[in-house]
Every structure is written in C-alpha cells, then in structure tokens.
Write a structure and sequence with these properties.
There is one protein chain. Helix content is 34%, strand content 15%. The protein is α/β, with parallel strands linked by helices and 402 residues long. The strands form 3 sheets. The chain has a 6-stranded parallel β-sheet. Strand 13, helix 12 and strand 14 form a beta-alpha-beta unit. Helix 8 packs parallel to helix 10 and helix 11 packs parallel to helix 12. The longest helix is centred in the middle third of the chain and has 15 residues.
Length: 402
C-alpha cells in the first residue's frame, strides 16, 4: 500500500514541531581507531534530515548501533556519528545523554527550529527490541510526529519502528524508505521485461522464499554462490567437499521443476573454481560441474559460466541481484562476483534498471567500485529480501496510508 511520506508534509505542518526520525546509523567502525569506516548509511539519511531542517522542524534522530543487548557499551555510543553528521550538515548536531529520560527532555526543550539532535543508542535499552509499549511511549513523549527512514530495520517490530506509531501522528516514511519501496516493489510488480534475478549466497534455505516468489515474477533466474552445490547434488552430481544442505535436496529438485513449469529460464553455472581448502591462498582449479573431484570444494563460478550469465543478462531490461557468486572476500575466488558487478554496471549505462538487493551484494559492488553506476542499491539486506518475498514489513505497515 502507498504510504504517506515526508514529501506530503508542508512547512506549516512541520515548523516548530519536534519530529522523531528513526534512521539507520548502524555504521561500521574501525576497531583500532574508533572512527567510522563507511558513512554510506549516514549520507543516505541526509535528504530527509535536510528537508525537515528546511521546513523548520526540530529534528530528533534515533538509531541503534551493534548488538549491546540492553547494556551500555562505550564502544557502541553514537558520539562519532553525531560528529560525522555535523560535518555533513554543516551545523552542530546535539548529542543526547540517552534516548529517554529527563536529560533528553531537557536537551530537546532547548532546541530551536531547524536544529538537529541525536539520541543515544536505542539498544542500550532491552525494551527497544522487545517493542515494550512503555518504552515506546517514553521515546514518543519528546516528539509531535514521526518519520521512519530506517529501511534496514523495517522488517522488525521494535519500539522505535512500530511501537512509537501508536503515540505519534502523523507517522510517515522518509525519502530513503520511499525510494526503497518504489524500486523494490516496482521490480517485482511492474518491471520492464525481460526481468532477470541473480540469486547467490551460501544456502538455499535462506533464499527459499525469495526464489519461490521470483519464479512467479521473473523471466530468467540465475543461481550462483554456495547454494549451487545443493542443486547439483539433487541432480545426482558429485560435489566433493562443497557446501551442501542435505535436507534441501528435494526442495532444489522441486524449484527446478517449478521453473520449467512456469517457463522461467533457470541457469546454474556450467563450470566452477575449486579450492583444496577454505583459504585465501588455497590451491585452485577450474572444472566442469560434472567433473568435481573428491576432496575439493567450489568457491566461485567459472569463466565459462560468467559468459553464459552475461549472455542471458544482455537482453534484460530489469535485473535484481541478491547474493555473491562466490567467496568474494578472497581475491582468488572473487572473479565471478566481480564480473557480474561490472556486467550490471555496463547494462545500467544502456538503460537497464539494476537493483542490488542489500547484504553482501552491496559489499561486492562497493569493493569493485561500481556502486555509483547501479540504478538502486538497497540499504536493507533482510528487509529487502522479505519485501521481495511479499512479506509485510511491520515498520512500514505501521505508517499512515497515503
């Protein structure tokens, strides 16, 4: 369902109002220096924050970082985030002592229009993830209305994503969530065809829902990553020491059968890069999938498969990618993933809509340096998968209808 967004709120709605904004500032930190190693998530929230500043709101940001499990952990404080955000906005961001309580109320009461404050890590309180109504009420007490712009947590019903909407009205989506919904929902509901989905990653079990949904929607399905060996074993092939989910062999067979029945082109790699151990410096060899020797494990798709995949993608008008083709963290086994990333960048330049569906695929396109060339990069791994599966995301469902 279409949701009300920040764009629907005017200066008259927002000037002088205290706006609680749920953002996703769960950024990676350099353990040695304590500095932010990648500020992508902070920059992704800027359009919403800047719009609220321009319309004269008092902007109160809230986020989690890491997994402190309801305890105060000094290394998970949001102080470095407030510092980085201050630099990006060109104005000071007030760092609050907590996310609820008298100190927060006092800090917010001092705010003037267009000022920004950042609450301390929500997950220092166990009640956040428990979606405790009393905690949600305290969180909402310092605000007049609510904006959710944290797509990465929208699939969780937490106090800051679902609970606060019971106490604040209006409750609307920010620009980042709006963009995510537009791209991801359009990709599966009204795509430009042909639509191809590239699904990678290590396990079939974590991608069953999305594969089943995509078999109903797409024209081509390309499978890579460790999950290919479960499909090969289901076909009766020997896979050596490669990762296999023995309890998913029947499922793999049924997914292939379903693709055939639906007329979906179902592509598995024809050759693989093998390693004699799971190590970045392992000995390697390239073999046809029918010739995998005992004692070896597959860690990437082979060069012939890359060409087959590129050929299949060349005619597509929409491509959705979730999950790497191999163990791309090891340079020796990253060629398949790198090639797909470059292929999608080239396709985007010719007018194909390319969507990177969160998680490791995002890390892959960033590692290759082609992230800027994609049509859309999703900021939520789990959330994007659940949305593509057609599941209801509680953090989105709770927002006001347009």
């Amino acid at each position: 369902m279409p949701k009300k967004t920040v764009a629907n709120l005017t200066e008259a709605d927002l000037a002088g109002k205290r706006v609680l904004v749920r953002v996703d500032f769960n950024v990676p930190m350099d353990k040695a220096t304590g500095a932010i190693s990648d500020d992508t998530r902070i920059r992704a929230a800027l359009p919403t924050i800047e719009d609220l500043i321009k319309k004269g709101a008092k902007v109160i940001l809230c986020s989690h970082m890491g997994r402190p499990d309801g305890q105060v952990k000094e290394n998970l404080r949001l102080t470095p985030v407030a510092k980085r955000l201050s630099e990006l906005l060109g104005q000071e961001v007030v760092m609050c002592p907590d996310c609820i309580g008298e100190g927060v109320t006092a800090a917010i009461s001092q705010m003037s229009n267009g000022q920004v404050a950042l609450l301390e890590n929500l997950r220092f309180h166990g009640e956040e993830e428990a979606n405790d109504p009393d905690f949600a009420k305290k969180l909402a007490a310092n605000a007049d209305l609510y904006v959710n712009d944290a797509f990465g947590t929208a699939h969780r019903a937490h106090a800051s994503t679902e609970g606060v909407t019971h106490y604040l009205s209006p409750s609307v989506a920010g620009y980042l969530i709006e963009k995510e919904l537009n791209y991801l929902q359009a990709a599966i509901e009204t795509p430009q065809r042909p639509l191809a989905a590239i699904i990678g990653g290590s396990k079939v079990s974590s991608k069953i829902g999305v594969i089943e949904t995509l078999l109903e929607k797409c024209d081509k399905l390309l499978i890579g990553g460790g999950m290919i060996f479960t499909f090969y074993k289901a076909r009766g092939l020997s896979v050596g020491k490669s990762l296999v989910e023995e309890d998913k062999l029947e499922l793999a067979k049924s997914l292939e059968a379903k693709a055939k029945e639906k007329g979906v082109e179902f592509l598995l790699p024809t050759d693989v890069v093998l390693a004699d151990q799971f190590d970045k410096d392992a000995n390697s060899q390239i073999v046809k999938v029918e010739n995998i020797p005992d004692g070896w494990m597959g860690l990437d798709i082979g060069p012939e498969s890359v060409k087959v995949f590129q050929e299949a993608l060349s005619s597509c008008k929409s491509v959705l990618w979730n999950g790497p083709m191999g163990v791309f963290e090891f340079d020796k086994f990253a060629a398949g993933t790198d090639a797909i990333a470059h292929t999608l960048a080239d396709l985007t330049a010719t007018g194909t809509t390319t969507i990177i569906g969160g998680g490791d695929s995002v890390a892959a396109v960033e590692k290759v340096g082609v992230a800027e060339k994609m049509s859309h990069i999703s900021t939520g791994g789990g959330a994007s998968l659940e949305l593509l599966e057609g599941k209801v995301l509680p953090g989105i469902a709770a927002l006001d209808e347009a």
